[in-house]
Amino acid sequence: MGRSYGEGASAVSCAAPCLGFSFQTNESVMDMITARFPVTATVAIGAAVLWLLVGVSGGLLSAVKQGTGWDRGAMMVALAGISLPNYFLALLLQYVLVVQLQILPFPQAVPFAEDPVRWFQNYLMPWIVLALGYASMYARLVRANVIDTLGENFMRTARAKGLPAPLILRRHALRPALTPVVTLFGMDFAGLLGGALITETVFGLNGVGKLAADSIAKNDQPVIMGVTLLAAFFVVIGNVVVDVVYTFLDPRVRVKSA
Amino acid sequence: MSPTVTRTISLPVPGASLLEVDDLTVTFPTTAGDVDVVRKASFAVQHGQTLGIVGESGSGKSMTSLAIMGLLPNGGRTTGSVRLSGHELVGRSDREMRRVRGDRIAMVFQDPLSSLNPYYTVGLQIEEAYRAHRGGSRKTARAVTIEALERVRIADASRRVDHYPHQFSGGMRQRIMIAMALCLEPDLLIADEPTTALDVTVQAQILDLLSELQRETGTGMIFITHDLAVVSQVADDVLVMRGGDPVEMGSAEQIFSRPQAPYTRSLLDALPRIDDPFSERPTAPATTGEGQA
What is the ipTM score, two decimals? Predict the structure, then answer.
């Protein structure tokens, strides 16, 4: 709700979703967040696309080729991916790709419209760093789910019906195995929209996460509260969306109409 | 799939039984070496007849049926001979066996809830079986599906076809499994403990339904169970198995009135009798093969 601070001529009004003003700059916290949110959203969306692609396909391949060299290798990488802290991986990537191999230019914020290639190069490392941990987690989850599903009795029924193997896998194994991934994805993605604190800070991306880190360092409490509220908002929204989507994916939780 | 393969399996060899199994052995590799879970089982099933396979848990009953279908879990090997209408099934490729499964030999399993995929309507799960073998439009498959559901006496079949497995009771789910198995009019139906998960009243209904459908269609049946009372109701012939070994094979009449093998006798003696409630039940001698299966 809108509020106003002070009295008389020095009164300051604060428009509807009012989060107060920064102690440091006197800027409206809402404006600070809206200005930085596109960067955070770009980081989150890019990373999400990457980790879904890599995590789900990696997990599927591992499950289908269970016990082979590929499976073991992929799961080793996944273990490393879960274990490596983001700040370490970020610095390592910067050192190797930018300083040593010079494949990528030094990160520099460029608007997409100005130079799309440079924009892409700038976001590539944060995407990879953020995605690796999630991709590892998803690959392990998908692998375990698919292997579980392959052992279900209804898979035996599907084979006993004489269905072709690709149809069995596509229809009977994938849907039960991937439904839980949707739940997890909704929550993870929503969490990221609240700001990737470490990754944004290490790569100097001016997003909500960096705003949080900076304001914590300066004890700028209205900003800290605003950023926290934003993160909480997305987590709640994410949960609601997941619950609604789930009723479409799993007929057992659908509300009975008859 | 070349048409010739389908034809060689589908045209019966004159004079052959519906199913002839000779010296069927199922082997699984373990870290301690190969283990035979079924050893040299031999039996035959005629058109319209029912063979009951009885035995305790781990006696190899289910493995025998999965071996016939070519559906052994990972690593399982089949040796011996399984002939359907005179055509050898052992050693056929998975592609060839896929044509046989569902179409020529269908199966009904023990737990109907976990045997149906919870994510799809029962209609779709029957339709897909039909379409995998006969092709055709969804419309045709749906009509066949509704007819199959009506045959197993699902009331209001044209509406129930769009319901999910969890919306049915246990007995109805097993009817749906039977409808799924019989929609392609297979020559042989393998029922693997189809009534074990059901209560006694529903069990009786399912047994009646199975024998009625069998009379109508002339399907041969293998009925696997550990319940001697059930076997005595449905089977023409009985094979008793124990620890992977076939113990005794004979007509139901002979097995129940003049059992030859000591194990069969002790199984029958272990049945409680309504006219003699107080005498002590003999215990079957300890099993040797239990842990191997």
Answer: 0.83
